[in-house]
């Protein structure tokens, strides 16, 4: 058995050149359309993230920030219904600022990891352990193969 694959129709050199000219002529439109799509996708993702944060952290978010965030999400969703990219970007910026406030409020309530920092921001000198961090029960061990 033998299988041969051949092109049933080919493009002439003129047709290829015409397609290239068309692509170059529409490059600016394509770039603008791509920016619109990427902006809308980013706005949708940001709104989803904000909604998820509202659901998961509702009890940790102060009521005034909660309402502000809900309003900003609605503004982004509303802007996404239209085609004004600048309005979408503005709504995204406002939502981003509201998300930062919420993040500060939520994570500001949690104690810093690793316990309390040294008083007045001092760090212990090189080679010294911070107060209260002396030997915390480190045990040396030996092993042998059986």
TrEMBL record:
Pfam family, one: HSP70
Comp. bias regions, Basic and acidic residues: 12-41, 131-146
SUPFAM superfamilies in UniProt: Heat shock protein 70kD (HSP70), C-terminal subdomain
This protein's UniProt keywords: ATP-binding, Nucleotide-binding
Cited Gene3D superfamilies: 1.20.1270.10
Region Disordered, residue ranges: 1-44, 100-146
GO molecular function: ATP binding; ATP-dependent protein folding chaperone
Taxonomic source organism: marine sediment metagenome
UniProt-recorded name of the protein: Molecular chaperone DnaK
InterPro entries: HSP70_C_sf, Hsp_70_fam
Biased composition (Pro residues): 110-122
Comp. bias regions, Polar residues: 1-11
């Amino acid at each position: 058995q033998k299988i041969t694959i051949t092109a049933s129709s080919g493009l002439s050199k003129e047709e290829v050149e015409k397609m290239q000219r068309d692509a170059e002529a529409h490059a600016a439109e394509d770039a603008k359309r791509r920016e619109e799509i990427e902006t809308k996708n980013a706005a949708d993702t940001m709104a989803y993230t904000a909604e998820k944060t509202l659901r998961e952290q509702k009890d940790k978010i102060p009521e005034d920030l909660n309402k502000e965030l809900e309003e900003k999400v609605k503004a982004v969703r509303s802007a996404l219904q239209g085609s004004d990219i600048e309005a979408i970007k503005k709504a995204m910026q406002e939502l981003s600022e509201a998300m930062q406030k919420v993040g500060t409020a939520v994570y500001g309530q949690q104690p810093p990891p690793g316990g309390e920092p040294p008083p007045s921001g001092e760090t212990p000198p090189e080679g010294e352990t911070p107060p209260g961090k002396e030997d915390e029960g480190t045990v040396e061990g030996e092993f042998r193969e059986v």
